[in-house]
Amino acid sequence: MSEETVRSAPVLGIDIGGSGIKGAPVDLATGEFTTKRLRITTPQKSTPKNVAAVVAEIVDALVDIIGDGPLGDTIPAVVTHGKTRS
């Protein structure tokens, strides 16, 4: 995929929060969502496995829009060199 193709295709943005995990395709040129945001409540036992299952559910729900495009996420933690510290 060319750099221009990546920029014009929506990117899936996922926000992992303490009360909800949200996802939506994002137009990188405008910074706007290209569809309504999907929100699923964060599992009460928010283990990595349980959170990953919710993220997978969001990806599955939006795969027809984003295809095999890139995904970006945010997590509520201090991250240093790819490792969470809190």
Question: What would you note in describing this structure?
Answer:
- With 86 residues, this protein is an alpha+beta fold.
- 29% of the residues lie in helices and 33% in strands.
- The protein has 2 helices and 7 strands.
- The strands form 2 sheets. Strands 1, 2, 3, 4 and 5 form a 5-stranded mixed sheet that branches.
- The relative contact order is 0.24.
- The mean pLDDT is 88.
Offer a few descriptive terms.
alpha+beta, 86 residues, 5-stranded mixed beta sheet, 7 strands, globular, two-stranded antiparallel sheet
End-to-end Cα distance, whole Å, is 36 Å
Task: Tell me what portion of residues adopts beta-strand conformation.
Answer: 25-35%
> What is the radius of gyration computed over CA atoms, rounded to a whole number of angstroms?
14 Å
- Number of DSSP E strands: 7
**Helix share bin:** 25-40%
Bulk shape = globular
Main beta sheet: 5 strands, mixed
Helix/strand order, N-terminal first: HEEEEHEEE
**H/I helix tally:** 2
Poorly predicted ranges (pLDDT <50, ≥5 residues)? none
Summarize this, please?
With about 90 residues, the chain is an alpha+beta fold. The protein is about 30% helix and about 35% strand.
List the helices and strands and how they pair.
Layout: H1 3-8, E1 11-16, E2 20-27, E3 32-33, E4 38-41, H2 48-66, E5 71-74, E6 79-80, E7 83-84
Parallel strand pairs: 1-5
Antiparallel strand pairs: 1-2, 2-3, 2-4, 6-7
